[in-house]
Amino acid sequence: MSDTIILNGLAWDKENLEVNGQTHFTYKEAKREAAKLNKRLPTIKEIKQLLKLPYTWDDNKMGIRISAEKEYLTTENHLFLPAKGYIVEPNIVRNASLFGVYWTSTSNDSSLAKFFGFSKQSSYTNVYYRYGRFTVRCINNLNRNI
Questions:
Q1: What are phi and psi of 59, to 5 degrees?
Q2: b/e string for 30-56 if b means 16 or more Cβ within 10 A?
């Protein structure tokens, strides 16, 4: 079984980044840990393309399923992104099971970076201070089609 899924020509990891039990990372940590694995964070443009694909909220797993084809949302041929919340205060995870918040590689300035988020009702992109701790989904570093 492959540990990646191909969507929009990119090889997405099937699991979120986790390092020694840590699941939420600052922007700098996220980029560093992805690079150690010869992977990278998706750009904001890649995320916007991903969010154009069919997706649905999974009430059992609490997150979204994304696939190239709508009929694959009910099979194994989809990318699942769990709603693991975020940390903006030390060691306090907020809104787990309600919101998924993931870093992108796109920075806004020296203190802000772009992220994408989702809930049962919507998906969105925005910026936040780089010290925030969000979840991370890596893609293969060799793919840079978008």
A1: -65, -30
A2: bbebbeeeebbbbbbebbebbeebebe
Distances (CA, A) of 60 to 50, 132, 139: 22, 27, 25
Q: What is the pTM of this model?
A: 0.90
> How far is Cα 36 from Cα 49, in angstroms, rounded to an integer?
26
CB contact at 8 A, 77 and 70: no
**Mean pLDDT calculated for residue range 2-6:** 84
pLDDT in tens, 93-136: 889 889 999 999 999 888 999 999 999 999 999 999 999 999 99
- Predicted pLDDT at 143: 54
Other beta carbons less than 10 A from residue 3's beta carbon: 9
Tell me how far the alpha carbon of residue 103 is from its chain's centroid: 6
CA dihedral 7, 11, 14, 15 (to 10 degrees): -130
Do residues 33 and 17 touch, judged by C-beta distance below 8 A?
yes
